[in-house]
Specification:
CATH architecture of the largest domain: Orthogonal Bundle
Number of domains: 3
Number of strands: 14
CATH topology of the largest domain: Arc Repressor Mutant, subunit A
Order of helices and strands: HEHEHEEEHHHHEHHEEHHEEEHHEEEH
Number of helices: 14
Length: 354
């Protein structure tokens, strides 16, 4: 193991052009959590390139040459001997012992309770981050975002290879049960769905244990491959589910259903902005701290928005909603209402504005 550590220590880090994210690293210790292909490794390597080469060692713990027991036995001695200031454990798992170094950075899909590490949750690109990859900021950029989604690697994958690339990535990152659950969730994007409903559906085509399915469902939720949204003031009600990235819908199903993909994109922007939100009957997103309702209406006009407002007027008055925003593809406008400010805002303006 010492020979392998020496090899990793001497290996130069290479990184293609790095596009800065909304999160950054400094000289603290971190655990970086995020799904496969969310950009964890690139974020870390970009940080390391700003350090003195002899001061750090980068270890990909998924390297098949690594024996965990030997690594646990040798790593502390190696770091002390070479005066390592920064240790990076990419693809970290909890059976790897934490050692005492000035700066420790771990990367993993799952969050581990390591008290002194600052947690950085890294999601796929939001729309503003996506724009860093675009050559021009016009309507074509938004169309590309709908086509590619938020995985940074998609910009380097040929268009005819993207679907299979995503499928292979997911099959590598998830076990068989987790993958099957994700496929079903992709079909049910932006709809109410319970683990029991998934169990009832999947047991029709395979022998399946309810306990194992529930455990796998909980696992992909914790890894943030799917997200759950509660109903307003009804925490026990069936939750709505959203995918970690809209590209999964295209990669795992043949159903395009643009409106649901659009709603999922809005949810992800709210998620990355750390805005507390809920759903309700006829309400896509209710933001209680902002007294605002957000509706996904990609092709709305003033007439359809007016009818929608009539349908949810009881909710508006009950919860004293001050603002209703209909996020559209390109339409701008407003509707007169005695209690709330009601407007239509294109997605690209709304996403960057928030």
């Amino acid at each position: 193991m010492e020979i392998l550590l020496e090899e990793l220590y001497k290996t130069d880090i290479n990184l293609d052009k790095f596009h800065f994210r909304k999160v950054f690293l400094d000289d603290f210790s971190y655990q970086i959590n995020g799904i496969s292909q969310s950009g964890k490794t690139k974020l870390v390597k970009n940080y390391l390139l700003g350090l003195k080469k002899s001061s750090y060692i980068y270890i990909d713990c998924s390297d098949v040459r690594i024996n965990i027991d030997e690594l646990n036995s040798e790593l502390s001695k190696f770091c002390n001997k070479n005066k390592i200031n920064t240790l990076v454990l990419d693809n970290y798992t909890e059976n790897i012992s934490i050692i005492n170094v000035p700066q420790l950075i771990t990367c993993s899909e799952v969050h581990y309770n390591i008290n002194y590490l600052i947690t950085v949750q890294l999601y796929p690109l939001d729309y503003e981050e996506f724009l860093a990859y675009e050559h021009k900021y016009d309507s074509t950029a938004l169309n590309h975002f709908f086509q590619l989604g938020g995985f940074p690697s998609m910009h380097k994958i040929n268009s005819d290879e993207r679907i299979i690339y995503i499928q292979k990535t997911l099959k590598y990152a998830l076990d068989e049960m987790e993958f099957d659950i994700l496929v079903f969730c992709a079909k049910m994007m932006a709809q109410k769905l319970s683990p029991y409903s998934i169990y009832e559906r999947l047991k029709q085509s395979r022998k399946i244990s309810k306990d194992k399915l529930y455990k796998s469902y909980d696992s992909i939720c914790k890894k943030n491959y799917i997200h759950q949204l509660e109903k307003t003031n009804h925490p026990k009600a069936t939750k709505k589910i959203y995918l970690c990235d809209t590209s999964l819908r295209l990669a795992l199903t043949t159903d395009r259903h643009f409106s649901r993909r659009f709603e999922n994109m809005i949810y992800l922007e709210l998620l990355k902005s750390k805005v507390e939100c809920f759903y309700d009957d006829g309400i896509d997103f209710y933001l209680p701290k902002k007294d605002e309702v957000i509706l996904g209406m990609p092709f709305a006009d003033e007439r359809s928005l007016f009818k929608k407002i009539e349908a949810i007027e009881a909710f508006i008055f009950t919860y004293q909603v001050k603002k209703v925003t209909a996020v559209t593809m390109s339409r701008e406008g407003s509707v007169s209402h005695p209690f709330s400010e009601v407007e239509m805002v294109p997605f690209d303006i709304w996403a960057i504005g928030d």
